[in-house]
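Any chance you could type out some protein's one-letter sequence along with its backbone structure tokens so I can compare the two?
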Amino acid sequence: MTKLWSIAANAFVQAIRQPLYTVLLLLTFGSLVFTTAITGYTLELEASESDTRLMVNLGMSTLMAAMAFITVFSASATLAREIEQRTVLTVVTKPVARPIILIGKFLGVAAASSVALYLAGIVLLLTARHGVMSEGLDTLDWVVITCGFGALVLAGLTTVFCNYFFGWETTSTLVGACLVLFTAAMGVVAFVGKGWQPIPFFQGINSQIVVVLVLLWMATMVLTALAVAVSTRVGVVGTLGICVAAYALSLITEPLLAGAAGHSPLAAFAYRVIPNLSYFFALDALAMGQPIGGRYVALSGAYAACYTAGLLALGMALLQTREMDAREKASTAPRLVNLYAWLLRIEALAAMVAALAVLVHLTSTGAETGIPAGVPHLIGLAAIGTAVWLLAEWFGRGSRWAMRLVMFLAAVQLVVSVVLAFLVFGTAHPAMRLALPAAAVLHASYVAAMRLRRAGRAHFGYAAVS
């Protein structure tokens, strides 16, 4: 048990010491505060209430996206990077079981994600208490402004002081100071009203926001388990691509599979296996003022616990079967192989960026009912990007099956380009007819050179040519 907590504490410290963790957290703070300035234009009769409701919904959506990125980058920094840099060998070679390593990493990343959600949740509650300035007669809530900005400024000054005089690490000190000072600020705001008068505890803040934050924490735990499991096999970018694809797929599980689950066993199986994160995003109930009961929260917690346990079991299996004491082939791969692997990674990134663009478009223009028209494109692009990235990873490491797949794809490209050039584009300009076959021949020649060269044969484990 001592080893487990040591690994968890080390993973937690590693996560909060990442500069990207602090940058994303501060950007989330700024986005939540900015929502108070852009949600005052609902033009309804009850403007103040409607604007505040819109501000809370926009803030919760911001939190969802921010927690997804913070979780994925934290998991990648604590496990995937250690495996790639071989620093995890210092733990594996000791009498520590690999499942203990994975669970410890999960607990550390989960703690870092929980701290980020806790701090961002306090900022959301402070903005909800302040409300939106819908009318000219509205007055600023100086209690919220003083406590909120005062806590952030004081945390920054504390960080500078401790770093200068004691040499404390900047990012982790800032997170720790924010944790203490933001909690104190929330405690003051909970008992002090707008005019600096004592009020009943938590007056002026919708308590259902806290319930929705608890549900969002459950979704964060599921996403953390997924990121940790995936990071046992792929790097930072691969983990990000797979988690974004899974996140997008989980949000459209209901409209995509619910209708077909009644008459298709395959659809019913997929509907029950794919996690549905929309269960944890109770924004509609929050917007309509409907209370979220304890039974719903308990069922959601059981749902999250089951999926988290399943994903951790998958991560244990993946980590258990991974060889981490062998020499990393990707670092000593021939130049031709490394160049080809990086070209594959660039193609994968292009597909993932395109999938992200489709996701943003669907989020901004999503349909109320049915399946949005761009969903097949989103799933296809995300799947292609993930598959190509994984192929690049295994190809760079010298896997024979990856080389065989690349050779097969090059042969298919050559045949298809010849067919297109002489049957489909037969009446086109000669230069256009020769462009596709020429590109295919170059690609096939490059693949053949990788396969036949002595360095390439050694990299992929083939017998050397005498």
Remarks:
- Residues 2-326 form one domain.
- The radius of gyration is 26 Å.
